[in-house]
């Protein structure tokens, strides 16, 4: 039985989304139970009104709520009994295999990092997300906004944890293909940091395919795309905006005259399929990767359907025992990388002596 700790109060509307999302999730996953964290009286009332299966739900009281616009450091310092922090504490204490919150992203990252700490060898956690690509393929992209300014070593660490997560989730597929997001595929392109990252990834034991451009995210040619949080967040927001624009433009064209309206009726099944395939709610749930525990961030403004998908993401990660596999893989990969870097430095020193 997989147990998830849910920040029931987090998000733009809190219980109005988290409770129906939790109920729908439990109907889909009979091998799961939830710890709903928040004001006990409010949570219980909402669960009873939703006819929730209370035999698979434990209510954990928390007296505080982190507001969506609250400063992360203030939330960390002053909200020690918040629903967000108490949910993460359940993972720390081994009572839950993952925590899910739709709350303040900055506060969630700061709290999760403080409570759970990072995996040995990983300096900073990254926000990672599986994105749809060609052939029903899913591509993991990170970082999506946690670290706007990264060193080459940190980008390599992101590549390692991303590769290990994909392998943990899909062990039958072999070594994941890793690409470094750049303005071109040539190794001479990009910033100094990106060029240095390229060289380090070449020395690693990862299945590094080289630099990739933005369109590769959706081509299915790689399994992991690595970028710093500044670039990654811009890419993510651009994707979200493009999908909304496409939907609006298609709707406008089909409503422009009687002929296109008639064509819309004929095309309705295909249009519904297209809309369903690109429904952003189905891809809700970003992973705080690099922590010693599973934490999934749901979009704060999502609805119950979207929150259900965030719970599904956390469930599958926990079910795959991904954190144990990632920690083991990170230790191995970073040891190999350190050894190769040492060999390179020794070779340079020998050349200088000669």
UniProtKB/TrEMBL annotation:
EC number(s) for this protein? 2.3.1.274
Top-rank lineage group of the source organism: Bacteria
An example Gene Ontology CC term for this record:
cytoplasm
Q: Which pathway does this polypeptide act in?
A: Lipid metabolism; phospholipid metabolism
Point out the coiled-coil segments of this chain: none
Q: Which GO terms describe its biological process?
A: fatty acid biosynthetic process; phospholipid biosynthetic process
Q: Which InterPro entries match?
A: FA_synthesis (IPR003664), Phospholipid_synth_PlsX-like (IPR012281)
List the catalysed reactions. Answer: a fatty acyl-[ACP] + phosphate = an acyl phosphate + holo-[ACP]
Q: Which residues form the signal peptide?
A: none
Segments passing through the bilayer = none
Protein family according to the UniProt entry: Belongs to the PlsX family.
Q: What does this protein do?
A: Catalyzes the reversible formation of acyl-phosphate (acyl-PO(4)) from acyl-[acyl-carrier-protein] (acyl-ACP). This enzyme utilizes acyl-ACP as fatty acyl donor, but not acyl-CoA.
What is the designated name of this protein?
Phosphate acyltransferase
Q: Which organism is it from?
A: Neisseria weaveri
Biological classification of the source: Bacteria, Pseudomonadati, Pseudomonadota, Betaproteobacteria, Neisseriales
